[in-house]
Fold this protein.
Amino acid sequence: MAYLNERPWDRDSNGILWRRMPSRPGKGKPQYGKVHFLRQRQAMDALLCQVCGRPAGKDATADGLLWLLGENPDDLTNWPAEMVTGHPPVCLSCAWLSVGACPHLRKQYAAVRVRRFSLIGVHGVLYRPGHPKPVPDD
């Protein structure tokens, strides 16, 4: 599967094709709960704060980078050694902003510092060839 006029940023470093979204930094209002795929991918790859887009490592301590985990029970799977999240880290000042503004975090959240981490995958849908268009694959 590919876009007709594919651009270098349509795929990540592993060759995975991502859905296109407009990128207009600084314009519009946050849409909490809706992931902007390009920004999310860039934030995870470069460990940027998911709110301000600056390096989250600027607030790192000996205990590691800061992550906010919300009410999604999947965030705490195999806690703590094999925890998995699809959310990028945050810087300390944006963490306070996030817990007050984001509905996902308002009811319940955990702030954790993580020393060791790795990117392990992409959450999405696999497709197989089909006619007249590709078909989602289980």
Summary: Residues 10 and 20 are 7 Å apart (CA to CA). Residues 8-137 form one domain. The two ends are 16 Å apart (CA to CA). The longest strand covers residues 65-69.
